[in-house]
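Training component of the fellowship. As part of building independent skills, the fellow (R.M.) carried out the full modelling exercise for a liganded target. The chosen ligand was 4'-deoxy-4'-aminopyridoxal-5'-phosphate. The inputs are recorded below so that the supervisory panel can assess the work.
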Amino acid sequence: MIYLDNAATSPIDEEVLDAMLPYLKEEYGNPSSKYYYKAVNAKKAVEDAREKVARLIGADSEEIIFTAGATESSNLIIKGFLDYSKYYCDGKNHVITSNAEHKSTLNVCKYLNGEIYSNKDATIALFSANKSVDRGYCASFIEVDENGIVSCDKLEEAITDKTALASFIFVNNEIGAVNNIGLLAATAHKHNVLLHADATQAVGKFPINVHELDVDFLSASAHKLYGPKGIGCAYIKADKYGLPPITALLHGGEQESGIRAGTLAVHNIVGFGKAAEIAIRDMETNRKRIAELDDYLINNISGIRDIKIVISDNFRANGIISLLIDRNDFNNERFIRRISDDVAISTGSACSLGEPSHVISAIGAGKDVNKIIRVSLNKYTLKEDIDLFISYLTE
Ligand code: PMP
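Fellow's submitted model of the complex:
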């Protein structure tokens, strides 16, 4: 099967798997244990991986907190920073995000806003009958433009004297839209507001430096850069006194600077570190390769009637291509199912299955939601893979 759904997850790199295996076999020590060599080795492996992940985004090791993935990182950062601000700092309790975020930001903000308690809209409607509660926080959802981009003007308009944090997606997982995170951070900082970037689809794909971007927080997952699932990181900007205090999401042991309790998944952390090391090593080669494949796909579909790219290429990251098949008889779910033995693609986010895409609605294309498919490439994709996909499209 040809795999063109890499925005959902990427295959694990063989080198990553090889690096992980010893930590599932003989090196099974708990890095928080003391003195004996298995514990010391595990701790060393974790710190080595932390350095590699930090290097990938231009951070210092102490600024990396390992989590179970970007969903957890964004929960930790948004809930943790808002809670700390409101109850232990200056009383600010407002977060700003956009209406085209991944659900791991959108639903965290809805939760803080008192709109939801679970993640399933159906459950919410059934049990709460649109009941909203006052959790002591509030959230604003600013609208993106037709390319999925957040404007600095809209951010500025939404900021109040209660705003603590703004949180925006770097590269959109459904349509590939790239926000100008550096400019959004500068805008937020003008008003004493901190910025969190959900960089899950960006980290490892192109050079990122948290200091140059001047972001305060960042989330990422290893499985989007050929690493294992169930591991990610929260970058938290340190100052000269160390990490700023934020409220923990998981309370328990003192692992990860007391911010994230629980025994560390050493094998996964080692895998993330290896994936980061490879991403740095092969960054330019992979970037060029995916840009060429992206061009190849776009050039080859440009001749096919009734197909267009959902957002302008000027705002799109290479490798995530959302296509509108504007034919009366086309239904995306049926098409994807029909080709699923040979080609894996998707209608959009794997995290929003079963409901129309909020991202497509956010860019004003809601009426076409059943005609949009997402193709996402990886470093192993071949031109022949794209040819096969296109042959189904033309058919
Ligand atoms: N943010 C974005 C932009 C994503 O694409 C994803 C994964 N689809 C996530 C957050 C959540 O990542 P994870 O499922 O690994 O927690």
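The panel noted the following from the submitted structure. The longest strand covers residues 163-169. Residues 15 and 257 are 29 Å apart (CA to CA).
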